[in-house]
User: What shape does this take?
Amino acid sequence: MANLIYSAIASLDGYVADKSGGFEWAQPDEEVHAFINELERPVVTYLYGRKMYETMLYWESAQSAIEHTPVLREFALIWKAADKIVFSRALKSVSSRKTRIESKFDPERIRQLKERTGGDMAIGGASLASTAIRVGLVDEWHLFIVPVIVGGGRRALPDGFDQKLELLEERRFGNGTVFLRYRTRT
Assistant: This one.
């Protein structure tokens, strides 16, 4: 059975986007991005809400961008190789290969997909991830804590929810970012 992984880059105070919706402060440097590439390599399916899909769509054409480093070009290849499911009622078409739209997030269908998928699955976007977290679908948590306090915005984790986790891995990067990998305790 596949693991469903929630991965987020968050401020120290727990936000993935600041009050104005910005997240430029979360841009990983070369060292962090190389590590992210290794984490993302086993992912065969990404689950996204519309906004996260539109943000990640950049990687569909980024591989050929001259200004990109080898680490960023590698991430583009990893992203393009995976299947993508976008949950949206508003989106009518997609602009990336290996991508399909689902009009609603059905937890039972995701459980079935986890049972038959031959690799890891990742869920992106705090809103969609909150839904999956609340219904017990998330198996692992990959949290990158950036050394910045933004004071408000979009929270990385849902309010009013508690979950016991087991720490599997931690790592500190030269830029002060800290990676924490947890497994959901049952």
